[in-house]
Amino acid sequence: MTQGWRELDVGVVGGGIGGMSVAIALRRAGHKVTIYEKRDFSGEVGASVSCAANGTRWLHEWDVDVAKGDPVVLKKLINRDWKTGEPVSIYDLDDYEKRWGYVYNMFHRQYMHAMLKDTALQEEGEGQPATLLVNHSNTARHDLIVGADGIGSAVRGIIGLTPEKTPSEQSCLHANVSTEDVVRLGLVDYSEDAALEYWGGQEGKWDKIVLSPCNGGKLLSYYCFFPRAVGDYTTQSWGVEDRPVKELLAPYPELDRQVFEHLKIGKEVQPWRLWVHQPYPYITRAQVALLGDAGHPMMPHQSQGACMAIEDAAALGILFSKKYFNGDIAESLAVYQEIRLPRVTRVQSAAARAAYNINERIGFSNNKNLALYNVEDEKNKLTIEEMNAYDMYKDVEEQLAKKRNTPYTEKYLQGLPIGLALPNGVVIGAA
């Protein structure tokens, strides 16, 4: 136990996936946690959430009952031709768990949230249960505040950050399709692929369909992208009245008829506002830290939004743990910013590039042997190796050593093994 460690009284603003994750991480680290949520979670609209190995590993470390989330374990990433549906680029995940230690899970948002909430609040498990206050709008005082209040964060404004953002040139409608309905109508059952599937994205256009199975394959979650000139939803928010199915189908006259037939039976058609945020200059101030979309909103095209929030939570859990926290909140938050900002900024930038070029997407960015392969900057592309070989403990130890003027002898640089050769030609630690 680090000399000077003390229990903190932590307030978490926002009770979504990021808020519940950091509540678990800080509970496990020995702190008292109160979560404040302005809503009560009723009327939640469901969509899928991607959780690759770099997120899944922390669920296991925190002893989350992952089975409660009823995930689909992904076996492939498949990119299909826009018109024919024929596979164009496939990234096989058969050896994924063997390589990275954890599977690639696809959750339904509501099930994932319930899974995390149970872990944060239940009596069982290490640390004292977090307290959840819903429909909350009063003031409170804590040793540490974590702003996990999403893309419209109030905490962000309180610490002096004003987002520099522009509406994306891309719009999105989301729809859910029941696999039972698909089978009943004799349509192609994509749930059998256990894959994250994409139509389009090779043509440098904004049109793209993304299919992710969840709920053990019982639900197919569709994200349907098209140019903002075709339909602008920047002034609408998730959870409003469902849009008509004809509006969902209108941008896609030439889309592969197999997936088009799926969209015809889409339910809960909801708009998703897409904004491109420039990286923030800081994500901590005084005794406040931002987490997830509050600190680094990003486009969805790397499927890393939830993972980055989970990683943020893990970083705070480590930094305030009995092994590393010496009672100096300012030091811990300074290290949190130093290890998180570079990583989330890279993902943020790569997600914006992948909006119109699927070859920039983690996984497909490894398929360099394809005729259609093309990326903006080979040396700068994001790869699975960079995301999953990252060791956060080593990153924390390196940055704490600098702060405390103590030796750091591990052969890691910013959490990546020195000498690791990435598929983009970069060797970690090389000149």
UniProtKB/TrEMBL annotation:
Signal peptide: none annotated. Residues 120-348 form the FAD-binding domain. The keyword Oxidoreductase applies. Pfam families: FAD_binding_3, NAD_binding_8. SUPFAM superfamilies: FAD/NAD(P)-binding domain (SSF51905). Belongs to the paxM FAD-dependent monooxygenase family. PANTHER family: HYDROXYLASE, PUTATIVE (AFU_ORTHOLOGUE AFUA_1G12410)-RELATED, MONOOXYGENASE. This is FAD-binding domain-containing protein.
